[in-house]
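Protein modeling request. Please complete all fields; requests missing the sequence field cannot be processed.
Requester role: graduate student
Desired output: 3D structure, token encoding
Chains: 1
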Amino acid sequence: MTLLGFFGCALVAFGPAASFFAVVIARDPIRVIILIASGFFWLLSLLLSSGLWLAVVPLQKQLAFGLVFSVLLQELFRFGFYKTMRKAEKGLQMISEDEMYKDHNQAKARHVLALVSGFGYGLISGAFALINVLADMIGPGTIGLRSSGEHNFFFTSAYLTLCFVFLHTFWSVIFFYGCDARKYHLIAVVVISHLTVSCLTLLNAQKLYVASLVPVTLVLLAVGATAFVISGGSVRRWRAWFTMKPADQLNGPPRGEFANTAVST
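Delivered output (265 residues):
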């Protein structure tokens, strides 16, 4: 039973991420390198936040304190990775086999770079968040007894990990675009929403799982839609995807063509 629970929660948390990696990232070695590099930046933020937590002894028992500073450091290192990628952009264009660079579609390539870097950020974040929970699930013990009620914690942890993997993915798309276009309100949206959903997870300590799961899911849908529009998405493109027709063959003017407009840094 414990082994089944282990694989079930692991697939809930990382199954969609594994599919995303196989379809979007694995085919391009440059994207794999960017994913690993972004994960390393997240680890640096974890190292600094851990050092800060150890240094401030009186507040070590205040989980909210460590959480807030961890989020702020993650966003600071997200900005650091953005600056690093912009400095390395010309080199990436020279060595990458990505068709977007070959077509000189700089804006679209930047959105994909942000998507991959955010996914790396979220993947390593999710791994560190869930690894201890998965280790406890292997046993000894049995999950799912009605008298316990702790089985909700394991599923909640797995589902929140899934949400945070893709939240980080969408946040990076919004964050990078906000930096490129100097739309600082988008950067503020990323930081505030990150703080909000992270603080909501504190409710799980009181077993208020629904109070955290529902708002986090709504935020995921909202930032996902925002990242979709920023990257050039529109209802027209969704229709084209579902009908398996090119977007230019559908009626109506094109909308949301952000990806076709070059942005300056």
